[in-house]
């Protein structure tokens, strides 16, 4: 594919506070389905984050510094608007539970109705279903070792 117009680009949005091995797994699996993934760190002033936006971007960029098919960006708009802005035809999401499915399906339906952008969902691998950014943040607050939950290349521990 020589033209960027033919590239299949997926946006992988999230707060990624922090980016976990579950997120890393989704990106690796997503790359087998699309040509490029834009990991997009959403700016949400209503969410209190543990790591600064700069630290999260730096950590994820460091992880993918040798993967030209992954770009890391931040955005402060509706995810679907940002996807359109960067030329993504797809939104990549992962789900761990039935509750995640209900939430993601509703958002995907609205996004498709608004812009035609399709969402594809990958089920979290069984060995990662217990991992969430909120659990990792809780462990950090209590001084626990998080090394088994985040990629070592992010240098967050």
Please report the number of helical segments.
5
Largest sheet: 5 strands, parallel
Stretches where pLDDT falls below 50 for ≥5 residues? none
* Alpha-beta classification: alpha/beta
What is the strand arrangement across the widest sheet? 3-2-1-4-5
Shape: globular
Name the helix and strand elements from N-terminus to C-terminus, one letter apiece.
EHEHEHEHEH
Compact overview of the structure:
The chain has 157 residues and is an alpha/beta fold. It contains five helices and five strands; from the N terminus they run E-H-E-H-E-H-E-H-E-H.
Task: Report on the architecture of this protein.
With 157 residues, the chain is of the alpha/beta class. The protein is built from five helices and five strands. The chain has helices at 21-30, 53-63, 79-85, 98-115, 133-141, and strands spanning 9-14, 36-42, 70-75, 90-95, 118-123. A five-stranded parallel sheet has the order 3-2-1-4-5, sandwiched between helices.
Supply database-style keywords:
single chain; 157 residues; alpha/beta; 5 helices
How are the secondary structure elements laid out?
Layout: E1 9-14, H1 21-30, E2 36-42, H2 53-63, E3 70-75, H3 79-85, E4 90-95, H4 98-115, E5 118-123, H5 133-141
Parallel strand pairs: 1-2, 1-4, 2-3, 4-5
